[in-house]
């Protein structure tokens, strides 16, 4: 009889086998339960992450949109402020140019006034007087010098403030450029989607770039730029008003002094004309008197000569009567009459000679005074001619334009390249 070979080893019982089968079943059910729960959780997680991703992308897009709106609003504010600043720069430039024209307009009056003073220095003798005309002309020179200093100061102040406005405009321009670049970046980000071909993973995308600012700093920066620009514009407005007032005051002072100088010059010319006419009348009267005096001198000389013959006659008669002999040499009435006639003739001749000498002295005095008056008349005519030339010179002020061309300047463009400023000017005064 054959024997069966039995594999050696530990054999389990039926109960163990049953227990093992039950354990496998229970474990399978447990694993399936766990797997089912994981599947459900995975599906929920997928839904949650999909929803969260969608909402996060929506929030990011919304925040990008809000950020774009904020940047756009600030950009518009900066642009509006820049336009106002450009307009103020143009207005201040025009005011500065007006001050330069007013300064250039003082060159001709100063030149004319100095020329008038130089002309009046040509007066001679007692005509070289310190009259009101000279005082007014010197005062006019002082007024013009002061006006030039004030206008030059206004031009310098306008130039310095234009530089400040230029700096503020430069800050606004930089801020605008940054806003535009940031706006382009954020709009590009907003235009991206999961289907965009240019998206990719980046190394360390959550890093904080150097120089990053907070939203508060970002707002404060643009707000400071706008505030600074408005302050400079307000200061520029006040400066323009002050310069305009100064120009008006300077022009009024110059015109008032010009009128005063013209009035004094006309009054002095009238006085010189009156003095000249008076002197001419005196000269003519003196010459007439001299002519009459010369005739009287000739008459006196003739009278003196006419008395010599009667005197000779009396002397001869007296001499002849001394030859009477003896008792006939008598001091009779004839003798007394001849002696008295001799005395009368001698007295008449002496009186005529004295009067002739007085007449000759008077004629000499009149001739000397005539020469003096002629010399004084020549000086007065020369002074009057100089005064008239001075008034003719001042006529150039009436024919000259009220405002001269502005001084030569080198242009400077602002940060936008649209507006020209005067950085350098030539002081024509």
UniProtKB/TrEMBL annotation:
<keyword id="KW-0969">Cilium</keyword>
<keyword id="KW-0963">Cytoplasm</keyword>
<dbReference type="InterPro" id="IPR048256">
    <property type="entry name" value="Tektin-like"/>
</dbReference>
<dbReference type="Pfam" id="PF03148">
    <property type="entry name" value="Tektin"/>
</dbReference>
<feature type="compositionally biased region" description="Low complexity">
    <location>
        <begin position="399"/>
        <end position="412"/>
    </location>
</feature>
<dbReference type="GO" id="GO:0005634">
    <property type="term" value="C:nucleus"/>
</dbReference>
<feature type="coiled-coil region">
    <location>
        <begin position="276"/>
        <end position="303"/>
    </location>
</feature>
<dbReference type="GO" id="GO:0015630">
    <property type="term" value="C:microtubule cytoskeleton"/>
</dbReference>
<comment type="similarity">
    <text>Belongs to the tektin family.</text>
</comment>
<dbReference type="InterPro" id="IPR000435">
    <property type="entry name" value="Tektins"/>
</dbReference>
<dbReference type="GO" id="GO:0060294">
    <property type="term" value="P:cilium movement involved in cell motility"/>
</dbReference>
<keyword id="KW-0282">Flagellum</keyword>
<keyword id="KW-0966">Cell projection</keyword>
<keyword id="KW-0175">Coiled coil</keyword>
<feature type="coiled-coil region">
    <location>
        <begin position="75"/>
        <end position="102"/>
    </location>
</feature>
<protein>
    <recommendedName>
        <fullName>Tektin</fullName>
    </recommendedName>
</protein>
<feature type="region of interest" description="Disordered">
    <location>
        <begin position="391"/>
        <end position="429"/>
    </location>
</feature>
<dbReference type="GO" id="GO:0005930">
    <property type="term" value="C:axoneme"/>
</dbReference>
<dbReference type="GO" id="GO:0060271">
    <property type="term" value="P:cilium assembly"/>
</dbReference>
